[in-house]
């Protein structure tokens, strides 16, 4: 079951460093790309950072719309990550990655970008304009306006993949190499007295 996540805890969806799929839409066009360089920035207000190369067609839609969606794909979706992350929509006959790979989506509730079905977390984001950072460093700052997660693997503000290997988020290293999110464990805080 998909549940809303309190915005002050939305950073926990990204805090462990997974690769994400970023989608955007504007004036009837849509696109999706893999983004390994992403991170939470703040929890109140909920904010995050992503790096989007100037040559990306998805970036052009982000700049035009001022919004984007983040979907957290799973181990079972690594082919999707590689496909949308390594092939430009302009190289496809349909010019649409969603239709080319039959990617099922759900409309976002606060923005126009689609949310990729089958993932385990989703963030709806509005860009905080920072032209210098965007042009110089390809760095986009965004406010998270809605967050959701699959409660089979995320509840009470924590990831718990123990019984769901194929639902583990993944980390991209390079050259088609991935790591699946590993085992979780707890450590007690040190006493201060």
UniProtKB/TrEMBL annotation:
One of its GO terms (molecular function) is oxidoreductase activity, acting on the CH-NH group of donors, NAD or NADP as acceptor. Residues 12-161 form the Flavin reductase like domain. This is Flavin reductase. Gene3D superfamilies: Electron Transport, Fmn-binding Protein, Chain A. Keywords: Flavoprotein. Pfam families: Flavin_Reduct. SMART domains: Flavin_Reduct (SM00903). Its cofactor is FMN. It comes from the Bacteria.
């Amino acid at each position: 079951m998909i549940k809303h996540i309190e915005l002050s805890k939305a950073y926990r969806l990204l805090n462990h460093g997974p690769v994400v799929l970023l989608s955007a839409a504007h004036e009837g066009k849509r696109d999706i790309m893999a983004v390994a360089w992403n991170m939470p920035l703040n929890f109140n207000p909920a904010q995050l950072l992503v790096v989007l190369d100037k040559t990306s067609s998805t970036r052009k839609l982000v700049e035009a719309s001022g919004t984007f969606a983040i979907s957290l794909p799973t181990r079972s979706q690594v082919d999707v990550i590689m496909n949308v992350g390594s092939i430009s929509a302009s190289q496809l006959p349909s010019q649409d990655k969603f239709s080319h790979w039959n990617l099922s989506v759900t409309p976002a509730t606060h923005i126009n970008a689609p949310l990729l079905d089958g993932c385990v977390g989703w963030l709806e984001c509005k860009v905080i304009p920072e032209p210098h950072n965007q042009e110089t460093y390809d760095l986009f700052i965004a406010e998270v306006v809605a967050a959701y997660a699959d409660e089979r693997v995320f509840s009470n503000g924590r990831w718990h993949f123990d019984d769901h290997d194929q639902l583990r988020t993944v980390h991209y290293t390079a050259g088609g190499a991935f790591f699946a999110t590993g085992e979780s464990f707890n450590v007690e805080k040190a006493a201060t007295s």
